[in-house]
Amino acid sequence: MNLANFKYSFVALAAVAGVFTSCSDSDDNDFDDNGSKVVLGNNRVFILNEGTMGMNNANITYYNPDKSGDIIADIFKLQNGVQLGDNGNDLIEYNDDMYVAVYGSNYLARLNSAGVEMVRKEFASDADFRGGIRSIDADNGFIYASFYGGVVAKFDARTLEVKAKLTTTGSNLEDIVVEDGKIYVANSYAIIDGVYTYLDELIVVDARTFTQLPSIKVTSNPNRVLEADDKIFVISNDYSQESYVLQMVEPRNDNKVTVIGYATDMAEDDDVLYLVDSRTDYTTTPFTTTNTFYSYDIKRGSLSNTSFLRNAPAELASASVYSMAVDDETGDIYINTTYYTYSNGDVYRFRRNGTFVEKFDCGGQNPRAMVFMDR
């Protein structure tokens, strides 16, 4: 696929519309595409490109997995007439809407299913939120968010009105997930007298009362958190270890913590945890990266050291993997790589069985998160 020749002219948009199926033509399509300047497909993938801190170049790319139309780089700007902002940090889907957290510009926005902004909540004027929004999750009509500065907040999912906030939970918070009425947040690090101090706890909050519960001790510097099969999976960047440490927390087993192995990123579908351990040797010129792909069967509690990829392009073995995601409808696996500030990242798409489908330009720098919307 080629996005270099995509033009934001009405001529090009009309051409794209000709090969897409309009959601307004179907009675069983729940998508809200009001205000859209382009007709999108029935199955949609949105890629949040984080951009480079301070460059105001975060964006959202649209990709049609049915391959019935062009990739649209920066669909947010196309639909809204403005840049997404500085440092896009999280993107989720909830009730057929998307929610995007932009850390550097420090706001949370609700977008419809075509990427048109419906509501925005800016945080610059609230001293409690000035540390910056980091991660979001959704449950039971609310959006939950973590902030640097130690704040956990609860927002109405429609209006983004602040419903509750805790301001003394921790220091610099990273990933947040909601599971079985509890909120789990990675408490990553603090800066004390100019020195980084890495923390070792998963903060727990009662979602209903919004009161803090006893924290869970994990490996130092937790940053990635994921929920699956009533368990919480945590990745910590403990600098004393040879790589990032993958752990499993069992809330229904007295919060037992088990170290599974090493992984720098993870994605889950159908109780299978897809993992990559991406290690870079910075002593070489140029730097060299080695990726190990493997999986963990959550139900069986078994680790498979065999790669879940079959015929991956050779360059993926040494590419810088920035994130991974799985389409929960099709099982397709997406592995997103970065060239950091040098150029746009790439996306490698595979079938559930590991068969390679295609590679394409993600339309921005540092592909951070993906949302899948399927009719």
Structure, described:
- With 375 residues, this protein is mainly beta.
- Helices cover 4% and strands 49% of the residues.
- The protein has 2 helices and 27 strands.
- The protein has helices at residues 10-19, 75-80; strands at 43-49, 59-63, 88-94, 97-102, 107-111, 117-122, 133-139, 142-147, 151-156, 162-166, 172-179, 182-192, 195-206, 212-217, 222-228, 231-236, 245-250, 256-262, 265-269, 272-281, 288-297, 302-304, 320-326, 333-338, 346-350, 356-361, 367-374.
- The chain has a 4-stranded antiparallel sheet. The protein has a 4-stranded antiparallel sheet with strand order 7-8-9-10, with no helix packed on it.
- A hairpin with a 7-residue loop joins strand 24 (333-338) and strand 25.
- The longest helix is centred in the N-terminal third of the chain and has 10 residues, at 10-19.
- The chain is globular, with a radius of gyration of 20 Å.
- The two termini are 23 Å apart.
- The model is unreliable at 1-28 (pLDDT under 50).
